[in-house]
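#lab-general

N.A. 3:47 PM
ok so I finally got the sequence cleaned up, no stray characters, all 465 residues accounted for. can someone with queue access submit it? mine expired

B.Y. 3:52 PM
send it over

N.A. 3:53 PM
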Amino acid sequence: MSADSQLRKDALGLVHAVAIGVAGTSLSYSIAASMAVLIGAVGALAPASLLYCGLIMVGITAAFVHLNGVFPDSGASYAWVGRVLHRDLGFLTGWVVLVSCVLFMVSATIPASTATLLLVAPEVAGSKLHVIGVSACWLIAVSVVVVRGMHLTGVVQTVMTAIEILVLGGLTISALVRYGPQALDLVSWASFAPAAFTQESFAAGALIALFFFWGWDVTLNLSEETADSRRTPGLAAALAMLVIVAAFMSFAVVTLAVLSEAEIRTSGANVVFAVAEKLLPRPWSYLAVLAVMLSCVGTLETNVLQFARTLFAQSRAGEMHRRWSSVHARWGTPHLATYLISALGLVLLGLSLAFPDIDAVLKASINAIGLEIAFYYGLAAFACAWHFRREGAGSARILLFAIAWPLASAIALWIAAVVAALAMDNATLLIGIGGILSGLIPLAYVRIAERTRPGGNAPAPGPGN
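B.Y. 4:20 PM
back already:
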């Protein structure tokens, strides 16, 4: 590996890696933006949907942990699928990660901007021009932090995540004190029994819940920059998943206990604030706005990280232009890849200003991104099961956590995605499936270019190439 494509080693420790993994799922924002949608789809079964999807995600996490233990790589799922299954499937996996990150850019920045304006200038919070302007400022600020190094990024993210968890934890405790009996009624066996779901409701709930959980895997994209790269990133991902499952399930119960059906329906993308308004007097209820703002900024940061590291890994392996594998000599970060995702985010923000109806397309992207997540998480889990297939006969642990659970999780994800896709409108399918299939174009270009240049095919993806 050349010196100008070497990431800064040991920039992150366990605590920072866990904080980044938790932030990747955007706890408060996911709750605020999607909890009403999830409850609208499955009602009081929302905590159960999150639990079952959480169990599926534990299987996916186990796959990522085991693969990272063998192949620590900033490309994560892209690199593993390419090594274990097929280079072309690896390329498409990386492409889907890139597309999902780009689609999510505006979805993360606009809520951060709106929350910021609600805190500092509520009189202009409804102005699209002000919202887009502040969104651009947040995107530039986050990009500067990310480019300046992983240690700085880890410190900033740890502080923001800690504040966010304290706010959500405080609201949960306050809700349990005031609405304890209602909360207990929601955790009965009848509310969690698999038989309570129909096939359609389970699939719809699982796909929405999948959007809640998406993003924790950024921890594995940072493995080359984390101390003890074969162990620490996997442990951080596992710890982050425990925090994430507990937080989402707890707040689902809190929402159902504190708010009526009408209040949930009218809260829209402000469920966290609606809960806070019933539990806390003003101005303390605005802590919920602060939590959502920090959550959006945090997930914007992790989104930039995941895009840049995936593109860096693909470029290093020769599957994207070599310029994207360039690493800043002083800061040790893939600065050009980071600038690219920032520029794409600014372009999308400009489009959202020029075309008012783009917001509807972006809302449809939640389910569309769910299809894309199911695709690449599932492939990574299949890769894990295939890689460890021979070791399973001699180890019950490997059989359960590296083969059976990941394989069952991958199958469940893909079945849920197919069932949910059958009920989606054409616009959502176009964004979701189109985002996957669009990768065939650059894939064909790269493979044709490989055949026509001296040296033939490129080596398999990996940090040594």
